[in-house]
Amino acid sequence: MPTELHVVFGGGQIGPRLARRLRARGHAVRLVRRSGAAPEGVDLRLGDAADPAFAAAACEGAAAIYHCMNPAYSAAAWGRELPRLADSLIAAAGRSGARLVVLDNLYMLGRPGGRPLDEDSPVAPVSRKGEIRARVAARFLEAHRRGEARVVVARASDFYGPGGTGTHFGDAFWPDALRRGRGPLLLNPDTPHTYHFTDDVAAGLVTLGAAPEDVLGRWWMLPAAPAEPSRALVERFSAALGRPIRVQGMPRALVGLVGLFMPIVRELAEMMYQWDEPFVTSDRRWRERFGPGVEVTDLDAGARATVEWAVRHYGAR
Questions:
Q1: What is the pLDDT of residues 182-235, one digit of tens each?
Q2: Which end of the chain has less neighbouring CB within 10 Å, N or C?
Q3: Which is nearest to 210 in space by CA: 71, 82, 22?
Q4: What is the pLDDT of residue 315?
């Protein structure tokens, strides 16, 4: 059987991990990013994915295309860049005939209202970024309905795990946690919250890239370990590290005040509702479709892997 070409767009938290998994499956893999390197054995293309000509050339001959890109964390950047990326990759997938697998988040679903979030949850964004995500998600699925491209969307909650520099357990957490034994968190650490492990996200995308055609034209909640409070996850980090990490929270009123001076905190402030009540996902539909034996990384193993990565990545700084 000829080797299939799988093209991964995005060199951040998931793209390189996905590229390695696809390569291990025996596929020819191309990683597309603006700058940087590619994992061993993976072809690298550098350029702007929002440029339709560049994206089409990068996807020529592809069997599957994976959209794992995320612009800078701001509503302005998302509103400007996400529609352009969507249109460019839809056109590239349509031209090549490749399946387009899109990684998305849960911002468009809004408040859980005491219910687990799943494929039946209404699209009801309560943030600017959620509104943008809702419009772009609708564009992808409409493209499938119109026959412009063959599309499937995967969704996940907040990430944790190796490579997760931009997560709540990344650049803002680990330097202080390793040096001073205190982990800064803007969120409420005591409400249950689903966290998706980075390697599990990559594995789910691999599954959707190879599944039969009946998975297309809709979105799927990726599988995750059971939800627990963020404080409990930090306790698992502490056990893996072998010394305590104290959660250092910030009162909601102070988050708003700090946001006046720090743009990234201002952008995060509108998403704090996700920790006002249990924010729990259900992967029931995934398990019904792909089997009850679907494996996810348990939280202790995920914590150990995260700590090992954090010590390597941040420990020398």
A1: 999 989 999 999 999 999 999 999 999 999 999 999 999 999 999 999 999 999
A2: N
A3: 22
A4: 84
* Residue 263, CA distances (Å) to 16, 74, 94 in order: 28, 8, 37
Contact partners, residue 223, CB within 8 Å, separation at least 6:
200, 204, 283, 286, 287, 294, 296
Instruction: Tell which residue, 179, 79, 157, has the closest CA to residue 112.
Output: 157
Is 144 within a domain?
A: yes
pTM exceeds 0.85, yes or no: yes
Domain count, the chain: 1
The answer to whether residue 237 is domain-embedded is no
Contact indicator for 297, 236 with CB cutoff of 8 Å: no
Q: Band of the pLDDT at 257, cuts 50, 70, 90?
A: low
C-alpha 91/C-alpha 200 separation (Å) is 28
